[in-house]
Design a protein that fits this description.
By secondary structure, the chain is an alpha+beta fold. Helices cover 46% and strands 20% of the residues. The chain folds into 3 domains: 3-32 and 182-420; 41-177, 7 Propeller (Methylamine Dehydrogenase, Chain H), CATH 2.130.10.10; 443-666, Phosphatase 2c, domain 1. It has helices at 3-32, 169-172, 179-216, 220-242, 252-281, 291-317, 338-358, 362-369, 371-384, 391-442, 492-509, 515-529, 605-608, 619-629, 635-650, and strands at 41-44, 47-53, 56-61, 66-72, 84-89, 95-100, 104-109, 114-120, 126-132, 137-142, 147-151, 453-460, 468-474, 480-487, 536-544, 549-555, 559-562, 568-571, 590-593, 599-603, 659-666. Strands 12-21-20-17-18 form a 5-stranded antiparallel β-sheet. Strand 13 and strand 14 form a beta hairpin. Helix 7 (338-358) runs antiparallel to helix 8, helix 9 (371-384) runs antiparallel to helix 10 and helix 11 packs antiparallel against helix 12. Mean pLDDT is 80; it is low at 167-182 and 282-290.
């Protein structure tokens, strides 16, 4: 990555750390400026019950303005007073019912001036209380939307279904608190909005991760995608059930934190297992491209959807869920969330850092950084949340949205990076195609037509451009020059070096008669220009049809001659390659008889050194065998046959090295 890309993860890391403190600061600010409790009272005929202090009730006769009793709702078991949040004077009885902020409900006998029942169900303020006189059932509603019922005489919990549907609403939910119902609606509304935001982010990240996997083949993306997809589905079914849209939740107070803990546990477990498998068995994983692997991902997604719904459905229909929040606990208020917290610490310190170091990318960096808001989320949940829908509860849910958002941002940034790489790749491909076209134009399209001579050549590059080169030089006195060369490497630099070699050689061959002098001067030019330490092997032959003499000079290159009697002569190098040593290039000119029926084959090592599946090279033996069995073919047929046979021998559709062949045949007159 460049400097700008390297600074980006640092900026994102700092931003995430700062954002993790924002919900905590907001919660503390809200606690500091919490408004004073509003006055609470209940009236029945001549009697009126009023909260005189946060935990005391004053009962007065409104006609005589005489105080009848002062009831202290604070019990010895309480460490501190618990504010009264709702009151109900029950008609035609001497009973006063009191709801408190810690979720307890007290039933007082006014004549005896003592509490005869104390019921514990919720850990959120009781905002509405009522009595079904037909079934003698006491009902209470907490500000988190939870509802419960008890027998008014015995205090035994009762099913809500037995409450009479004909009971007047004023009896069922009697309270004089203006903010009560409004608080429940507002909190459920914000809970739903935050949950669906997290769900949308999780599902979008999951689908984009699969698409990224199918496109790029990065195996880390479906791991995070699967984890977020699973958690997103649990969150979706969770909020649907809490809003009573898919299942009827009996106890919202316990349902929400229990399913939250299950979702977080599965989320981090899937991430740990997936990334660990990549670290341990990376080589066994394949890039996805086939339909079978895509179907596998679809089946996994369907399976997780089924499991997610099953978990939420079971939790929603169970008659009794385990207690999830212990507000009076010294440390862990929500013990069910300790396990995902421990798993996060393990992943954040051991698994994810190692995964990022081995497979660095913006997306894997996002996986590592998502641990920060997830840890902050679990800290709020475990140590500070004392009831559903309190400030720390919402802080945890907001931080969970941030934890989902971090991998999505990393995925989008990775998409942007890949898109930039693709654009650069296509631009480079266009440049290479232009370079290939220019290089192909440097090679002769057709061989010169001379009496008694058949001539053909061909070059096939392993990449867009190559380092092989061949040429025909028409010299004076009806002599023919043939050259083949192989530059070290077959990249863009090799093609440029090849073009230099061709230009120098053409200029020198037309101005110098001695082949040794031509190569000496060519070597001087190439060693001067070769700043990249490249070299060239070259075979230059000059054939005179009148004398049947073939002169040649071979700088680190070999060729073969097949006579009319099918005897083969391998012409070895007569000097070192070009571009290696300056002023010391000693390359000799040799000559041989080349009568009618003789065949000269010049070729590069891309054909000679090709190997089969057993590692055996094609070599001179393969070339000689083809020449002897096909010496009656024309030169163009021999050229095509040599290249195609070498490719077939390797079993590869594209050569690993450049392949170039030139064949000269002296025809019988």
């Amino acid at each position: 990555m460049n400097n700008e890309s390297a600074e980006l993860p640092k900026f994102i890391s700092g931003t995430i750390i700062v954002l993790c403190f924002v919900p905590f600061c907001i919660v503390q600010l809200m606690s500091a400026i919490e408004p004073a409790p509003k006055p609470i009272q209940s009236t029945r005929g001549e009697l009126q019950a009023v909260r005189s202090e946060i935990d005391k009730i004053e009962v007065r006769n409104t006609v005589t303005d005489k105080r009848i009793a002062v009831l202290d709702t604070h019990t010895k078991q309480e460490e501190r007073p618990s504010p009264i949040t709702s009151l109900l004077l029950l008609p035609e009885t001497d009973l006063l019912i009191c709801g408190k902020s810690d979720g307890r409900v007290q039933v007082w006998n006014l004549e005896a001036r003592r509490a005869i029942l104390e019921l514990n169900s919720f850990y959120s303020p009781i905002i509405s209380i009522g009595v079904d006189t037909k079934s003698n059932t006491l009902l209470a509603v907490a500000d988190n939307g939870s509802m419960d019922a008890w027998d008014l005489e015995t205090g035994v919990p009762q099913p809500l279904q037995q409450v009479s549907s004909e009971l007047p609403i004023s009896y069922r939910f009697y309270h004089d608190i203006d903010f009560g119902t409004e608080s429940v609606v507002q909190r459920m509304f914000w809970y739903t909005i935050i949950e669906w935001t997290a769900v949308c982010i999780a599902l979008i990240t999951g689908f984009l991760a699969i698409i990224h996997y199918l496109t790029v083949g990065d195996v880390s993306t479906p791991i995070v995608g699967t984890a977020l997809f699973f958690s997103g589905l649990i969150d979706a079914f969770n909020v649907l059930s809490a809003d009573h849209l898919v299942n009827s939740v009996e106890d919202t107070l316990r349902f929400i934190p229990i399913t939250w803990a299950i979702s977080r546990t599965f989320n981090i477990t899937i991430l740990i297992i997936g990334t660990s498998l990549i670290l341990l068995k990376r080589r066994t994983m394949k890039n996805i491209s086939s339909r079978g692997e895509f179907r596998f991902l679809a089946v996994v997604a369907f399976l997780f959807a089924f499991i997610s719904y099953g978990i939420v459905h079971i939790c929603s229909v169970l008659p009794a869920l385990p207690q999830a929040i212990y507000p009076e606990a010294f440390l862990a208020k929500r013990p069910w969330d300790i396990l995902p917290l421990v798993l996060l610490l393990f992943a954040g310190t051991l698994v994810f850092p190692r995964f990022y170091r081995r497979y660095p990318s913006l997306f894997s960096h996002g996986i590592f950084l998502s641990v920060i808001p997830q840890l902050a989320t679990q800290l709020h949940a475990v140590f500070w949340t004392t009831e559903v829908f309190d400030g720390h509860f919402f802080a945890a849910h907001c931080l969970r949205v941030l934890a989902y958002l971090v991998p999505l941002v990393g995925l989008i940034l990775d998409y942007n990076r890949v898109h930039g790489q693709e654009a650069t790749f296509h631009e480079t491909q266009q440049k290479l195609l232009i370079a290939r076209s220019v290089q192909q134009n440097l090679l002769p399209e057709t061989a010169p037509v001379l009496v008694g001579i058949d001539l053909a050549g061909k070059s096939q590059s392993s990449d867009a451009v190559g380092g092989d080169y061949f040429d025909y030089l028409e010299l004076d006195r009806n002599r023919l020059g043939i050259v083949i060369a192989d530059v070290s490497g077959h990249d863009f630099g090799a093609s440029l070096f090849m073009a230099q070699t061709r230009a120098y050689l053409r200029a020198l061959a037309n101005t110098h008669e001695d082949l040794a002098e031509v190569l000496q001067r060519l070597n001087d030019h190439l060693t001067t220009d070769s700043n990249t330490h490249r070299f060239v092997t070259l075979f230059l032959a000059r054939f005179d049809p009148e004398t049947d003499i073939l002169e040649y000079i071979a700088a680190g290159h070999q060729s073969l001659v097949l006579t009319s009697k099918q005897s083969v002569q391998i012409i070895g190098p007569t000097g070192p390659p070009l571009g290696v040593m300056q002023d010391e290039h000693d390359c000799k000119v040799e000559q041989i008889s080349f009568p009618p029926g003789s065949i000269l084959v010049e070729l590069t090592d891309g054909i000679l050194e090709v190997t089969n599946s057993e590692g055996k090279m094609f070599g001179n033996e393969g070339v000689i065998s083809l020449l002897k069995t096909n010496d009656d073919k024309c030169c163009q047929e021999l050229v095509d046959l040599l290249i195609s046979s070498a490719l077939d021998y390797s079993g590869q559709p594209v050569p690993k090295d450049d392949m170039t062949v030139v064949v000269l045949k002296h025809l019988d007159q």
